[in-house]
Design a protein that fits this description.
The complex is a heterodimer.
Chain A (H helix, E strand, L loop, with lengths): L1 H19 L6 E21 L16 E21 L3 E11 L34 E12 L9 E12 L8 E4 L2 E5 L1 E4 L5 E10 L4 E14 L2 E14 L4 H4 L8 E18 L16 E14 L10 H5 L2 E12 L7 E14 L2 E6 L2 E5 L1 E4 L3 E10 L3 E15 L2 E14 L5 H7 L4 E17 L21
Chain B lengths: L1 H15 L4 E4 L8 E5 L6 E5 L2 E4 L4 E6 L5 E9 L4 E6 L12 E6 L2 E6 L2 E6 L10 E8 L2 E6 L2 E5 L6 E2 L1 E6 L5 E10 L2
Antiparallel strand pairs in B: 1-2, 2-5, 3-4, 4-16, 5-15, 6-11, 6-16, 7-8, 7-15, 8-9, 9-10, 11-12, 12-13
Classes of the chains: A mainly beta, B mainly beta.
Chain lengths: 473, 187
């Protein structure tokens, strides 16, 4: 118990100091001083003619006077430049794995984000699931590791938290707070989107003690999206003091876990830089998206029969909500780059009782138009959600950029869809059965940590930027 | 317990140190030089507080903090043959896109280029292996005075923005000790 508490305290202290010491900064500043010297010579001529004729003879002095002034002006100026200071910075990564006990398969689905069952804390899995487990990482960061005489593409990093689930049995779940990972990337393609083979080694001290070794084939990032295929092995130990054992209904004993796995993964808002990209200023950073967002929440009026809220005046005016997590709208590099394809980790649209849909990884196709530079944009789009609900959503959004990372929008559209039975549980209890529904809706939403890009930001419009950034050679 | 936190803190500070940077002339204050290895952490090594060794194929930037009008002085002791380039009026950010003043020293002579045009060259003033050479660079407004041992070469009307930086670049053979590096402000 003492060791466990000490480990937790240790991690908190290390993480706190790490944050305070500036290692966690994602921006590096460079300030230079320079001096401009200007030399200027002024010639001033005076001619003072006498009021009357003068008998000057053949050789006479001129009344012209020339004053020569030399001025030296020096101006000191400073310039501050801002550079990205990370190799990888990510919000969320999910991997659907095979390799766990097939009798207790969770059924995490492709990429580990399409749950095949109605999950609950008492769920002990089922047979015949392809993806029996999953690996989930939240808050990913990697910085350059300069060892082996500056061997290229080594990184050291961590995740805020990592969950490794071989199968549905909670006692076998390995949880790592700030696990340390060392990775080496072998790049097969050094242009966006990058393709790399990445061996990795990681370990965690608490709450579970484990090591995790893997090799992955990575594609990305483009607009923060990455796809990865993994093979690897995790081996670890859960003591009686870990939350997985403490809160477990099936065992109180410590467990050892050996988990060889293969899996397919996806990550959202997960940005990868080559080392030379960290030498390119933020203003010249290569952006591939029209929009990136962490979270957005909207309130809507719809023609659903019953509101999701209480049946008050406000409840009748605002009948539904939607929220979307980890959104990306990737510009397509043709026809003025204004068409885009997008997706999100999760999109829930509840427009009224019995009129709701939820989709993981919906596909969006739209057109982006700027109405006012740096401020106002409009985008009509078509969104297709396929799992767990099916829906088709025609919508248009008017986006107002309030600040760098906060946007306000008006949104309206028409959605038609249905939800699978198995979702049941909490959603059905709260919002009613949503077998099939079609609704018009209109409302407003706020988007938090949401970045809208404009024409000059897109890399497709920046012909001045090299495909491969500068290196000192 | 407090000791443990202190050790942790120190480990962290060490962990955060940039391995591509050497701070020269920490004392006296106001004469500090930041040496940064731009193309690999094994391109220079510190000898003492005002001396370092530069290795082949190196690109180093020396930042003379907040002085653009200065006299830089050091002794160069080549350990091999080859050439070394000293670039002024540039910064690591703009190097090498902006062609600045470039002094090329080698065992065959010296050459001074400005924006890729040669201003001066000679084959009589040259570097000798394992011998001490005094190099002095004086930037004063539009005047630049370069001293190589006893030879003094003066240029007026430089018309370039003076910066805090000197970039050192060596070829694939050149290795040398740069010692006694010092600088002073011109005003």
């Amino acid at each position: 118990m003492k060791t466990y508490k000490f480990a937790i305290n240790l991690l908190i202290i290390v993480f706190g100091i790490w944050l305070l010491s500036g290692c966690a900064s994602i921006t590096r500043e460079e300030t230079d001083l320079f001096t401009i010297t200007e030399i200027d010579t002024t010639f001033t001529s005076y001619v003072k003619n006498s009021p009357s004729n003068r008998d000057n003879g053949v050789v006479f002095p001129s009344s012209r006077e020339v004053l020569v002034e030399r001025n030296l002006t020096q101006r000191d100026s400073t310039i501050t430049r801002y550079y990205p200071d990370f190799i990888r910075l990510g919000f969320f990564e999910a991997i659907g794995t095979i390799g766990g006990n097939s009798d207790y398969g969770i059924g995490t689905g492709l990429f580990g984000i399409f749950p095949m069952s109605n999950l609950s804390s008492s769920y002990r899995g089922e047979k015949d699931k392809i993806f029996t487990g999953g690996i989930y990482r939240i808050g990913i960061s990697e910085t350059r590791l300069r060892w082996f005489r500056d061997a290229p593409n080594w990184t050291i990093g961590t995740n805020a938290v990592e969950f490794i689930l071989p199968d549905s049995r909670g006692e076998n779940m390995l949880i790592g707070l700030l696990p340390v990972y060392v990775r080496k990337r072998f790049y097969l393609r050094e242009e966006i989107p990058y393709i790399a083979i990445t061996p990795a080694f990681g370990f965690s001290i608490a709450p579970s003690q484990y090591i995790n070794m893997s090799v992955s084939a990575d594609i990305g990032s483009v607009g923060g999206l990455n796809f990865r295929a993994y093979i690897g092995m995790a081996a670890g130990f859960n003591s009686e003091e870990t939350p997985q054992i403490k809160g477990n209904d099936y065992t109180n004993a410590a467990t050892s876990v050996i988990f060889p796995y293969a899996g397919l993964g996806i990550s959202f808002l997960d940005f990868l830089n080559l080392v030379p990209e960290t030498l390119v200023e933020w203003k010249d950073y290569q952006h591939s998206s029209w929009q990136l967002g962490l979270f957005e929440l909207g309130l809507y009026y719809s023609n659903a029969d019953n509101s999701l809220f209480k049946d008050t005046v406000a409840g009748k005016a605002l009948k539904g909500i939607d929220f979307e997590v980890a959104k990306t709208n990737l510009a397509l590099p043709f026809w003025n780059n204004r068409f885009y394809v997008g997706t999100s980790l999760l999109h829930f649209m509840g427009l009224g009782m019995n009129s709701w849909a939820l989709s993981m990884l919906p596909i969006r196709l739209g057109y982006w138009h700027t109405l006012a530079d740096d401020e106002l944009t409009i985008t009509p789009y078509l969104e297709l959600g396929s799992y767990p609900s099916n829906y088709l959503n025609f919508a248009a959004e008017l986006n107002l950029r309030i600040s760098e990372h906060l946007n306000f929008g008006l949104k309206g559209g028409y959605i038609s869809g249905s939800s699978d039975e198995f979702l049941g549980g909490e959603l059905v209890n709260r919002f009613g059965i949503s077998s099939t529904f079609s609704n018009f809706y209109f409302g407003f939403n706020f988007r938090f940590v949401n970045k809208i890009f404009f024409e000059p930001d897109l890399r497709y419009n920046r012909k001045d930027l090299p495909k491969q950034p500068k290196e000192f050679k | 317990m407090k000791k443990k936190y202190l050790i942790l803190f120190l480990i962290l500070i060490v962990g955060c140190a940039a391995p591509d940077t050497i701070v020269l002339n920490r004392f006296p204050e106001g004469k500090t030089i930041i040496l940064k290895m731009l193309n690999g952490i094994d391109k220079a090594s510190e000898i003492n507080q005002n001396s370092f060794r530069v290795f082949p194929n190196a690109i180093l930037s020396l930042k003379f903090i907040e002085t653009t009008q200065n006299s830089i002085q050091f002794e160069l002791i080549p350990e091999t043959e080859g050439n070394i380039e000293l670039s002024l009026y540039t910064s690591q950010h703009a190097f090498p896109q902006i062609a600045p003043i470039k002094l090329v020293l080698s065992d065959k002579g010296y050459k001074i280029d400005k924006e890729n045009k040669t201003l001066a060259e000679s084959d009589t003033v040259k570097l000798s292996q394992n011998k001490k050479h005094l190099i002095k660079l004086q930037k004063d407004a539009n005047l630049l005075k370069i001293t190589i041992d006893c030879a003094v070469i003066t240029f007026s009307y430089i018309t370039l923005n003076a910066t805090e930086y000197m970039i050192i670049r060596t070829d694939d053979k050149f290795r040398a000790v740069i010692q006694g590096i010092d600088y002073s402000k011109n005003y």
